[in-house]
Amino acid sequence: MKKALLLLGCVILLFSSCQKAKKQTPLMTYIEEPHSFAKPNEAVITHLDLDIKVDFDTEIISGTASYLINNNDASEIILDSKFLEIEKVQADGTDTNFKLGAFDSQLGNPLKIAIKPETKRITVFYKTTDKTEALQWLKPQQTADKAQPFLFTQGQAILTRTWIPIQDSPQIRVTYNAKVAVPAQLMAVMSAENPKTKTADGVYNFKMTQPISPYLIAIAVGDIAYKPISNRTGVYAEKSMLDKAHFEFSDMENMVASAEKLYGKYAWEQFDVIVLPPSFPFGGMENPRLTFATPTVIAGDKSLTSLIAHELAHSWSGNLVTNATWDDFWLNEGFTVYFEMRIMEALYGKDRANMLARIGRQDLEEELEGLKDSPNDTKLKLDLNGRNPDDGMNSIAYDKGYLFLRTLEETVGREKFDVFLKNYFESHAFSTTNTEKFIKYLNENLLEKNGITFNTEEWIYQPGIPENQAIIVSDKFEQVESIVQDFVKTNNIDQEKTNNWTPQEWVHFVRNFPEDMNTEQMQLLDNTFNLTNSNNSYIAMVWYEQAINHDYHGNNVDEKIETFLTEVGRRWYVSTIYKAFKRNNKTDDALVIYKKARNNYHSVTVNTIDAMLGFVSE
Ligand code: BES
Ligand code: ZN
């Protein structure tokens, strides 16, 4: 009898703990968002096993994407896919029904896969196509060494679905393993634990054990090598770039250490940078463990490395604490710019940080001017429903986001603000957050606690810049401005004063020419300072913009502009120059160059410039 009772007790205990176990693993709640077809509240992916072959002859990636899933009793799981050829799908190893829903030009197709309540794993057999937008396949001619082809991906914002069928929302997080086969003379690297040398057979195995959002899954394949900077930082680049990159980024370990001192431990173990060919459409992309970077950042004097500080800062704001939807993009970029400035200040001092902040302040003014007919796009919280997120993701998120956080810092004091930020990152690590949750967290943990009132809602939900904005002052730049003014009056510059200028001072100088500066003055400056031939990509870019604005054609600057636009695909640079052509009614000149250059650009740059110049391909 005793035994029977004991047994019954055990059974009851077992049953109730089973029930508990079932209740304890509810799916997290995902919010509705307009840029993914997935219904993660019904069934969600948790881990990816990728097994692919990268074929440079056909320019196709093919293989399988296999997922562990959490199923909330759903009879289907929906993935995002765009321009992929789906061959078959399996659920727990047996073929299952699947269907591609209607095509949307921004979002692609929902891939609907039949599953059972007990399905644990789904496997998609697929191929990319020649429309695949994330990938750029480069001919040897388009690389630094000019001997081998190159491939890289760009996932943000919604392009990962064009090379992997996936639930492509930043709210989703997956760990992943990947087996990648590439031509034996090339090396593959991913946003994961990476090889440091080539394998004999061109097969590489990757592991990303921390959960990341799909837009951060990335791969690059090329004839590259690795050179360490410290035991957790280093650079990948083609041979002819490796030493230059290693020198340029030699402060990387110090950057990581400074960042950790500010806002807590670096969570991703390794921080490497790969220098890509010049068509890479961004300055940098914060792929976890391996930032992707443009070669235009290699100036020879470490002057443009704030870009590395920026991508590193994303290891906290963006990769660790991720925007839940692209409407909350400012949570990624605004915090990252703020953090970037703090790293730069800690490493190189206030003068340098203030110059960078002033440049951003001028960028913001120009962006506001450009958006004066679409004030909604000047809000921090965006409404990108029905739009390609890429179109609404302008520099407002960066520069207004920064100004908001800097104003907040100056209001509450740096000490309290730093404690707040550190706790914010720690308490939200490996999760997503949106604007509304952030405001609540800010109120509870910083403002109410310290009895501070702040116009947070105005900053976030209203267009333009609130009255209480922090005023950013740079003494260095004020001196530069007075030199511009003197020059315009006297046609003379005391070169003693410019001898020690940093590239930032040159950029500020060039950007602040008055509109009525004449061609002779442009010529005089060019002859004195050789601006047309500047080796610093940033100075060159702003000088070209001014050459177009001021109708200056001396020293073969037109040829230089054309070469720059054909070789470089960094969207911010090329769009600044094309915009200058357009603003000055020289769109025809721009189109002549663009028709030659377009083939060299990645799809995100092509999309932006097509729209800007009204280009329709035949
Ligand atoms: N995450 C962005 C790049 C991005 C933004 C890609 C939106 C796709 C959609 C990256 O961190 C970035 O901001 N890059 C900047 C550099 C920077 C120093 C401001 C860039 O590419 O210019
Ligand atoms: Zn960024």
Could you explain how this protein is built, in words?
- By secondary structure, this protein is an alpha+beta fold.
- It has 20 helices and 21 strands.
- The strands form 5 sheets. The protein has a 7-stranded mixed β-sheet with strand order 5-4-8-2-1-11-13, with no helix packed on it. Strands 15-16-17-19-18 form a 5-stranded mixed β-sheet. Strands 9-10-14-12 form a 4-stranded antiparallel β-sheet, with no helix packed on it.
- Helix 3 crosses helix 4 and helix 18 packs parallel to helix 20.
- The N and C termini lie far apart (87 Å).
- About 4% of the residues have low confidence.
- The structure holds ligand BES and zinc ion.
What attributes does this structure have?
alpha+beta; seven-stranded mixed beta sheet; 20 helices; globular; binds ligand BES
What structural class should be given to the helix and strand makeup? alpha+beta
Q: Would you count the extended β strands for me?
A: 21
Taken as a percent bin, the fraction of beta residues is: 15-25%
Overall geometry comes to globular
